[in-house]
Model the fold of this input.
Amino acid sequence: MTETGLFPDDKTMQAGQLLARGVCRHMRSLNFASIEELVPTRGLRVDVMALGPKGEIWVIECKSSRADFQSDHKWQGYLEWCDRFFWAVDGDFPTELLPEDTGLILADAYDAEIVRMGPEDKLAGARRKVMVQKFATTAARRLQLYRDPKPGSV
Done:
């Protein structure tokens, strides 16, 4: 944490969090808004969800190692909550492990690059509305907690 205690620094962040930061920076360069650790439904938590300028929704799962990838048994459940799905890994990750019919992003703590675009499977309108509302609500609540980290105290 920094001196203020609000923001983690590189030394306290885990490898997956550093990848997510680089991914979010890249998403911003593509005019996407992104949010980390969003829960689309009970039992699922995506590493990064990105909302594009045309309303598209991408899910990006950050994997820091072979073991991290092999222990993820829920990722296929994320597919029904996005228009495109991507894996984000660093340059040392054995990418041959990743399914070829998913997107691939190479990332580090500072930036990322889309290597393979994930196939598009557009969300139904009702599901999209739910996800955009969940995205907005989660982002607004986190911003409020940033601005007022001790709600209810006087």
Remarks:
- Strands lie at 33-38, 46-51, 57-62, 84-89, 103-107, 112-116.
- DSSP finds three helices and six strands in the chain.
- The longest helix spans residues 125-147.
